[in-house]
């Protein structure tokens, strides 16, 4: 896949990236949690299962978790205790139909318990993004991906994108009152043309250079993402 294979004016999902202070430890956690295999890449790690769109990078960074994550992973689990055994902690097991947890470095995630015969091998269920205006930012991304925005039948304060080209799970946007304050520790990489994202209102944070082959951008809510220029 390359940007020349993506329809003009559109972007396509490529892979997911998670920041970690200890990439070795966190790659082991996420590999086991998601049903992937970890391969070290210098200080970083690559999690794979043979399906390119399942690829997840664990990138080592110096900054620890300091605030609630605005992007988090929702995962299928056989039992919450399986994640606890990997180093996660339970934050709230009673308020929702899922269990709110933190990973070994304190980043939030949500566990959705499944019957054993309904537990998939690849266990990333969906990606959730906080926003003061989920409808607006969902439509922004939907336009770039070429998909519509879905809404719950009961009129809940969230919405989502499904069927995004290349994306093997739904992208959910949920309302929060607080503004973004620090760099997201989870972001997605895309195939496409950076100019299409900029024309739609994205901000260029860093252009491809001798050290990186991708452009780093932010959407109108400030969420970082990368567009591969190859």
Automatic annotation (TrEMBL):
- In this chain the Glyoxalase-like domain maps to 16-111, 127-227
InterPro entries found in the cross-reference section? Glyas_Bleomycin-R_OHBP_Dase (IPR029068), Glyoxalase_6 (IPR041581)
Q: Which CDD domains match?
A: VOC (cd06587)
What Pfam family does this protein match (any one)?
A: Glyoxalase_6
Q: What is this protein called?
A: Glyoxalase-like domain-containing protein
Q: Which organism is it from?
A: Friedmanniella luteola
